[in-house]
Design brief:
The complex is a heterotetramer of chains A (472), B (105), C (641) and D (495). By secondary structure, chain A is mainly alpha-helical. Chain A has 22 helices and 2 strands. Chain A has one domain. The two termini of chain A are 25 Å apart. Classes of the chains: A mainly alpha (472), B mainly alpha (105), C mainly alpha (641), D mainly alpha (495). At the A-B interface, α7, α8 and α11 of A face α1, α2 and α3 of B.
């Protein structure tokens, strides 16, 4: 193994390095103030490296692989986590009970990210499983991070139980696949997987395991409760990064290992997509708690993703990537505002946001842009990604699905507008007072806004992703 | 290799364990028991892996390694889960799953 | 022809006058607008007479026949290669005749109004509207095509609306103007549809093509069917509906009596002399088309004209408002003209009806304008217009008295006044065509004489009324107009009208038909005599008679309940049974569906919330059953592969 | 040549952002929109100039930039007579809308930004030659409406804003399916295209057309107030602030008509021929229904909203009649209705500012106290009821002449019913004029009203001049549009 080969794993290595450095600093010094900036600088460095340095190759006999496309996925995740870290600064630094644990928090978060990177880089199911668990278990700890809150513990409980069950089912699927094919390497399976009942069962188990992470209906029920109970920043991590990573691996699995199953998963994803969009929307309509609301909205959003899988084209794959890139920006934008508000005032209800614009112009505009992006309103980026997803579905002739999807997009617009209405239109005697957010949060939101506004307008970004995904 | 015991026995065993685990997960009320049920599921998977490896693909050890890793990870899972249950217990002084339903609808 | 280019300045002057008085009038002294308006109409009159002179005596004839001259014709809007709207000037006997009529009466009215309207607020506005009206009316009669006619047809409608509603603070005036506009608009709908179907059949709007007796338009039309009827007849009847609206034929006459809410000079100009005869003019304009392709339509026209004339005359006998009596009289007289067109044939003596109709139009314009202006002078003097409250005015208003008498004699058809000649021709034409129509017309003529003299005696004789202020004769501007018009009413009958205007352009020798004239004059005299007995002196005879025929009188007095029927249709049917339901439908069905969708969505959302019970084990249930369902689905998919 | 039409508003928005005072914001907006107006007129003149030089390209000033290579999406703009005239209409209405809002004091910056974003969407829509960008601009124009009505509206503004937005976005969702369907059927493999001109060259199979046509027509039709999906319009208009009502009724609803013409009819001619009858029935109902609905309303804005339903129904009706004359009429009607309804709503706003009510039964005699506004209102009314010399007449007559070119019973009956609307229009217009402007002054407070201020005068005068200009000299406009209609007619008659 040469240095070059190690460099294939540069992202994971850097992440683990950061995690370790954070841990060391945390242990070495009592002055927690420097910890955060150092980590942020390192993280930005990692993210930038990810964009600059492209890698392509395999390690460990195919257990680990890296392609430009996977690199891009990691970049998306890195950017997202960077934003989350920036957004959580206020919550971590300003609250006494969290202040002590900054190091722990960052360490766990970054390890989870490293797990995701391993997961999407995996070339066999063992690596995949390890990555998955490395990604999941730390999050469970973070969900229950606020020790003093019952809700946080409840969310943690629900999360870990559901996650363990789903990973058990997933594993069972993998074991069947192993039993029938004799290998867990993707490239071996790629050739040997064929449509038999047993393998189809294995496929379904694996699919449902991942669908659990993406929170497709009917594997979504944990989502809302966990999102509501977890700290805001963890919720945003779960709803965007974790979801995106799972979609990426699903993409890779479907397009490589299970490509022979494409007839099955085409049909299956159509139903799942319809169910997910509709149920997510129907639940979202009624929500009053903003975090819970965003949770259901993220379920509904997840329902759009399968549209891009249909047909199994590389264009579809790039559309999914593009969608997730924009989704990460938009979702984090919305959660970022909620995070700022929650950490300053502790208010999470939609009614609390009445008259928000009067006191906090910048924040409400960021919120509005993010919501519009989620709803798919031009000229913000969400419009483009959704439009392309629809195009993919239509190209394969799935007009009925398309129809349901556009109807759901309209319904989703309704509840996004409810928030906009609360902020801009509703009157309130005592609106949330003026919040001065710290520089980190501002930076984080700025990145989101830039992403929301420019990712769509610059078509070159999509085309770039598309050139990458040709060799999936 | 144990004489006279075919692979199907193992498969039946693992399947049974899987469903026992699932059943336990669904009906038990104590969080720890639920966790144990999940461990049973994981162990059923382990049996699968090992049996498949031994009987069907004895030339390499992928299955056995997989089983090893599962065991390790099951341990971490259990530790994190129990840590969470502890915080939960601190708040409500019980670990009955039915009481963990403050958030709903 | 070059010489007629000068005619083109008529509309320009009038439009300029409209714009000037309309935009700047409010800021200047009121009289400036008045004088501007009057001056411009004076120039217009001069040009009109000049044009008429040149047309009738120098350039109008080709051989023995008056031809249509189009000095210019500009493209205004093009639909396709054959259908386009031009704006131009068409000179032929009837349009030139109308030029004379309109400019003359309009000049008189402008002049008269200088006195009559003095001191009114919105004096400038009044003149501006008058100019607009005159502009539209003149452009209407000189139109070269049907669509141009329609355009100005609408514009005269709107000018009429504006002028009737001149006293806009008065609710009754507002209501009357609205009614007038809507009723005529309704009729115009028929006209419009008529034009459009006609244009579809004939592929043209141009009069020269449409009315050429040997042209393609007339030959094509008869074979086309529309909704199972002969398209041409339907079309022409539709166009006639438009005419009936403007010319207040039964049953579209209801707006005209109410239109008397406008200032009296306006009634004289628009609702007696010019605009209301536009319908007659239009039928005359399309006369060859009616004759050759719409015989049935022409019959309808004849009967409606006859009926209207009798009907309106009957109502006129019972009314009390002097302007309303004149309004019904106008309806009745226009009925004569329409009827005369309806009974006319084409060419030579067959075409007598046509000539008679135009002749009557001409004379009627003079004496009816005069009647209205006289009525105006009376109202100006005593500020009353109820016949019951006036009487004995001959002492105070000598000029008005004499001119009014002349007009009454003219309208009653007493020789040698103008009405005698035109009515004689009409009756002759009717006699030749249909005896029933003739008889009705004769009776109507008698009734006409009766109610006109009822009016005359009622105003100037009858009882002596004590007025709050002693009435004074009108100022010079007004009496001048009266006298000029009186002279016109007295002598225009001697014009050999048939020499100029005839159905086919070839001059028609006309003479008095004594076999018709004598009974007609006798009938008229009888009418006058009855009126004399009833109304010369105050007595209770009218009351006795009216109570003797009780119910009938009531029905006639209430104008045969036509207004009530209309109100029932509009208020009762349209508002209650169409618009009301439309709004209800909008609110409850259309909106209800939308809100229903929202409601159902919310309901479903509410119902399915129990899936999210908060119990982690239930989540697992759902998840596992989801897997089972997926397995079943996949098995299903696999079995179909 | 056309890109500045989008850049000027964008720059204006940025300038507004740096403004300090309300006054500055207004001046900057007005200046920007005036510049835009001048520029769009310049474009129109250039267009006519090129045409008169004999340029017979279907679209002029075509510029194309690649945007999303993978989907073959281009940012393509171009102009023909129809879009040129509609762009000028937009410029006029926006400019007068800005002037009409001079008195605004609440969240001024935000208002003008939203308004200009809205108008940018409209410009983009009219000049787009690519369905993707066209759709993008369509949605861009709809969304600011929500904020504009929701924040600055009156009455039950939240309900109206939500209803309007959802109905329009629902329609756009349906439209989206149609557009994407067109794209997906426009070729094979990677040769798919959104370009209208390219799509027009295709001959899609009939069943595809029949599937897509209703989607696209309904999608655009809702914006054009197609019965029974018109109810957003009355509520929306009645709650919207003045300038928004002006833009909405004046311009936004035209996008529906334009879209139906440019996309539904042009690209799917066979289906238009086959399925047109369904929509002819619906639009005929729209025309009469809107007019009858307007008769009994009490709120001035409701009356005009229903009237808009009727008039825009006529636009769609004319489009469906699909011959050269009626299509020409439909475009003129769009422009004419845009101008006069903008005038209407502007005046209603001004009257409302004085009387603080829009109930016609509570008002009366305004002619006496505010003659300028009243006369302007009357002129708008006359234009609406189709008085010759004003634009409405030209439009309606062209439509009716066109519609009468069919002699079968179905078309004839529909046409005659649609024609009947002109009488009903007269009824409700005169009813309003009678109640509102004429009659005695009941309320003594009304005597203290001030007549129009300079900005109000400017609004009214600009719009009236445009209305009368078209009404008096329609030939150039009609010619310009007719020429641009040739390709569409060719398609519609090609089978």
């Amino acid at each position: 193994m040469t240095i070059d080969q190690f460099l294939l794993m540069k992202n994971e290595i850097l992440l683990i390095a950061i995690a370790v450095i954070v841990l060391i600093i945390d242990l070495m010094t009592d002055n927690k103030k420097i910890l955060f900036p150092v980590m942020i600088i390192l993280f930005i460095f990692t993210t930038v490296i990810g964009f600059i340095y492209q890698t392509d190759g395999e390690l460990f006999g195919g257990m680990y692989r890296s392609t430009p496309l996977i690199n891009m996925m990691k970049n998306i995740l890195n950017t997202g986590v960077l934003i989350i870290l920036l957004q959580s600064a206020g919550w971590l630094i300003n609250k006494a009970e969290n202040h002590e644990n900054i190091g722990g928090f960052c360490f766990i978060l970054i390890s989870s990210l490293a797990g995701m990177c391993f997961m999407i880089s995996s070339g066999d199911f063992l690596m995949f499983y390890l990555g998955l668990e490395l990604a999941t278990i730390p999050i469970a700890a973070l969900v229950a991070y606020e020790k003093m809150k019952f809700l946080s513990a409840e969310a943690g409980t629900k999360f870990i139980l559901s996650a363990v069950l789903s990973s058990g089912i997933l594993l069972y699927g993998i074991s069947i696949l192993y039993g029938t094919n004799g290998s867990i390497l993707f490239k071996d399976l790629n050739n040997s997987v064929e449509i038999t009942n047993l393998q189809a069962l294995a496929f379904i188990f694996i699919l449902s395991g991942i669908a659990f992470k993406i929170s497709l209906v009917p594997f979504h029920l944990w989502t809302a409760d966990v999102y509501e109970g977890a700290p805001v920043n963890i919720t945003s991590f779960l709803s965007s990064i974790s979801k995106a990573a799972s979609v990426f691996i699903l993409l890779i699995l479907l397009f490589t290992v299970f490509i022979n199953f494409s007839e099955i998963w085409n049909e299956l994803l159509v139903y799942l997509s319809i169910l997910t969009m509709t149920i997510g929307n129907l639940f979202a309509i009624r929500q009053q708690n903003l975090k819970r609301f965003l949770a259901f909205s993220s379920i509904a959003q997840a329902g759009f993703i399968p549209l891009g899988f249909i047909g199994g084209t590389s264009l579809g794959a790039s559309t999914v990537l593009y969608f997730l890139l924009i989704y990460v920006f938009s979702n984090l934008g919305a959660f970022g505002v909620v995070s700022v508000v929650t950490s300053a005032t502790g208010k999470e209800s939609m009614n609390d946001y009445n008259g928000f614009y009067k006191t906090n112009r910048g924040l409400s505009i960021v919120m509005m842009l993010s919501l519009f992006s989620l709803a798919g309103i031009p000229p913000v980026a969400g419009f483009f990604s959704k439009f392309f997803l629809f195009t993919i579905a239509a190209k394969q002739g799935y007009y009925f699905l398309l129809f349901i999807a556009v109807i759901n997009a309209t319904i989703s617009l309704y509840y996004y507008l409810l928030v906009v209405k609360a902020m801009f239109i509703n009157e309130n005697e005592q609106p949330i007072e003026k919040i001065t957010s710290d520089v980190y949060a501002k930076l984080g939101l700025a990145i989101c806004v830039l992403g929301i506004v420019f990712t769509g307008l610059f078509g070159i970004i999509f085309d770039y992703i598309n050139t990458l995904s040709k060799g999936i | 290799m144990i004489e006279n015991i075919g692979i199907e026995k193992f498969v039946i065993l693992s399947t049974l364990m899987f469903f026992i685990g699932v059943y336990g997960f669904l009906v038990r009320k104590n969080l720890i028991t639920i966790l144990i049920s999940v461990e049973i599921i994981l162990n059923s998977v382990n049996i699968n892996f090992v049996a498949f490896n031994k009987y069907l693909y004895p030339e390499n050890l992928q299955g056995q390694f997989f089983a090893l890793f599962i065991i390790a990870i099951a341990a971490t899972e259990a530790s994190v889960a129990i840590a969470i249950f502890v915080t939960l217990y601190r708040r409500i002084k019980m670990i009955d799953v039915e009481n963990v339903n403050k958030m709903k609808y | 022809m070059e010489i007629f280019n000068i005619t083109g300045i008529i509309p320009i002057i009038l439009f300029a006058s409209f714009l000037f008085t309309g935009l700047a009038g409010g800021r200047l002294k009121p009289m400036v607008s008045g004088i501007t308006g009057t001056l411009s109409i004076f120039i217009v009159t001069a040009v009109s007479y000049y044009t008429a002179y040149k047309y009738f005596f120098e350039f109008g004839k080709a051989g023995n026949e008056y031809i249509k001259i189009i000095p210019f014709n500009l493209m205004w809007l093009q639909f396709n290669d054959t259908l386009f709207i031009n704006m131009g000037i068409l000179l032929d006997p009837i349009s030139v005749m109308m030029l004379i009529v309109i400019s003359t009466v309009s000049l008189m009215v402008h002049l008269y109004s200088l006195g009559y309207m003095k001191g009114e607020t919105g004096f400038a506005r009044f003149y501006s509207f008058l100019s607009l009206f005159t502009f539209s009316m003149i452009s209407l009669v000189i139109s070269t095509n049907l669509f141009q006619t329609y355009i100005f047809w609408e514009l005269v409608g709107i000018s009429s609306y504006l002028l009737i509603g001149y006293y806009y603070s008065k609710p009754s005036a507002v209501a009357a103007s609205k009614k007038a506009f809507i009723v005529t608009r309704f009729a115009d709908l028929g006209f419009l549809i008529g034009i459009l179907i006609l244009s579809y059949i004939t592929k043209t709007f141009e009069y020269t093509t449409l009315t050429d007796p040997n042209g393609s338009a007339i030959n094509q039309g008869s074979s086309v069917l529309f909704l199972g009827l002969s398209a041409m007849n339907v079309t022409l009847i539709l166009i006639f509906i438009g005419c009936a609206g403007k010319s207040a034929m039964f049953p579209l006459h209801i707006w005209l009596p109410d239109a008397m809410e406008g200032p009296t000079p306006v009634s004289a100009l628009i609702h007696a002399a010019t605009m209301v005869v536009a319908g007659v003019y239009l039928i005359a304009r399309l006369f060859p088309l009616y004759i050759f392709s719409g015989a049935d339509a022409l019959n309808v026209i004849a009967f409606i004209g006859t009926f209207t004339s009798l009907f309106a005359a009957l109502i006129a006998t019972t009314q009390m408002d002097i302007k309303r009596i004149l309004a019904f009289s106008t309806i009745s007289q226009i009925g004569f003209m329409i009827m005369s067109l309806g009974v006319s044939g084409y060419g030579d003596t067959n075409g007598l009806g046509f000539t008679a109709s135009m002749f009557h139009l001409f004379t009627h314009a003079m004496f009816k304008a005069l009647l209205f202006l006289c009525a105006g002078a009376v109202i100006h003097a005593i500020h009353l217009n109820n016949l019951n409250e006036m009487g004995g005015l001959r002492k105070y208003l000598p000029v008005t008295h004499i001119t009014f008498l002349i007009a009454c004699l003219a309208i009653s058809g007493i020789p040698p006044f103008s009405g005698f000649f035109s009515k004689d021709e009409i009756l002759t034409a009717a006699f030749a065509k249909n005896k029933l129509i003739f008889t009705t017309a004769l009776i109507t003529a008698g009734i006409t004489a009766f109610y006109m003299f009822r009016l005359y005696f009622g105003i100037f004789w009858n009882k002596e009324v004590k007025y709050d202020k002693t009435p004074h004769e009108a100022p010079k501007t007004m009496t001048t107009a009266l006298i000029i018009l009186a002279v016109g009413s007295a002598i225009t009958g001697f014009i050999p009208f048939g020499n100029f205007v005839s159905s086919n352009g070839v001059p028609l020798e006309s003479h008095i038909h004594f076999e018709i004239a004598i009974p007609a004059v006798i009938t008229a005299l009888v009418g006058i005599f009855v009126a004399y007995i009833f109304y010369k002196k105050e007595n209770n005879l009218p009351v006795r008679v009216s109570s003797a025929v009780g119910g009938l009188y009531g029905i006639i007095y209430r104008k045969f309940f036509i207004d009530e029927i209309y109100i029932f249709i509009t208020k009762g049917l349209i508002f209650r049974f169409i618009s009301g339901p439309v709004v209800w439908f909008d609110r409850h069905i259309v909106d209800g569906t939308m809100n229903g969708i929202a409601f159902i969505t919310n309901l479903v959302s509410e119902k399915i919330k129990y899936f999210q019970s908060g119990q982690v084990q239930q989540y697992a249930y759902v998840m596992l059953s989801g897997i089972i369902i997926i397995v079943i689905t996949v098995i299903y998919i696999l079995s179909n592969l | 040549m056309l890109i500045p039409l989008l850049i000027i508003p964008t720059i204006t928005i940025f300038l507004i952002l740096v403004c300090r005072s309300h006054k500055q914001v207004k001046v900057v907006s007005a200046a920007g929109m005036a510049l835009q107006l001048i520029y769009s007129i310049y474009v129109l003149i250039e267009y006519l100039n090129l045409r008169s030089l004999g340029n017979i390209e279907e679209m002029l000033f075509v510029q194309s930039y690649q945007w999303f290579e993978s989907f073959n999406i281009y940012f393509t703009v171009g102009l023909d007579g129809i879009s040129a005239s509609l762009a000028v209409l937009t410029a006029i209405v926006t400019f007068s809308g800005v002037l009409a809002t001079w008195g605004l004091e609440y969240r001024v910056k935000e208002f003008f930004i939203s308004l200009i974003v809205l108008s940018t969407g409209v410009y983009g829509f009219f000049i787009s030659l690519d369905l993707f960008t066209m759709f993008m601009f369509y949605e861009l124009a709809v969304i600011p409406m929500y904020l504009l009505i929701g924040i600055w509206g009156s009455g039950k503004k939240e309900y109206s804003a939500m209803k309007l937005t959802l109905m329009l976005m629902g329609a756009s969702a349906v439209l989206l399916v149609g557009i994407i369907g067109l794209y997906a059927n426009s070729g094979s493999g990677d040769n798919l295209t959104y370009n209208i001109l390219e799509l027009a060259k295709l001959n899609l199979p009939l069943d595809v057309q029949k599937f897509l046509f209703p989607l696209i027509f309904v999608g655009f039709g809702v914006l054009g107030a197609l019965f029974p999906l018109h109810t957003w319009s009355p509520d929306g208009h009645s709650s919207a602030p003045t300038a928004v009502s002006m833009l909405h009724a004046g311009v936004l609803m035209k996008m529906g008509g334009y879209g139906c013409l440019r996309v539904a009819m042009y690209l799917l001619p066979e289906a238009a021929n086959e399925l047109g009858w369904i929509f002819i029935v619906l639009t005929t109902i729209s025309v009469v229904y809107g007019a009858f609905g307007a008769i009994v309303q009490k709120d001035l804005k409701y009356i005009n909203a229903y009237s808009s339903v009727s008039h825009c129904g006529l636009v769609l009706f004319a489009i469906l009649m699909s011959n050269k004359i009626s299509l020409n009429g439909s475009v003129i009607q769009m422009i004419s209705h845009g101008l006069m309804t903008a005038l209407f709503f502007a005046l209603i706003g001004m009257i409302y500012e004085r009387t603080h009510t829009r109930d016609i039964n509570l008002m009366g005699g305004l002619m006496k106290t505010i003659p300028f506004l009243s006369v302007s209102y009357m002129i708008a009314g006359f234009a609406s009821l189709g008085l010759p010399g004003l634009s409405g007449f030209v439009a309606e007559m062209t439509i009716f002449v066109g519609a009468f070119q069919y002699s079968d019973t179905f078309h004839r009956t529909a046409t005659i019913i649609a024609c009947a609307s002109i009488v009903i229009t007269a009824v409700y217009i005169l009813r309003v004029v009678g109640k509102l402007l004429l009659g005695p002054v009941e309320n003594k407070d009304y005597l203290t009203f001030r007549d129009a201020f300079w900005n109000e005068r400017a609004v009214a005068v600009i719009l009236i001049i445009a209305i009368a200009g078209i009404g008096i000299a329609p030939l150039w406009l009609s010619d310009m549009i007719t020429n641009s209609l040739n390709p569409i007619i060719l398609k519609l008659r090609s089978f």
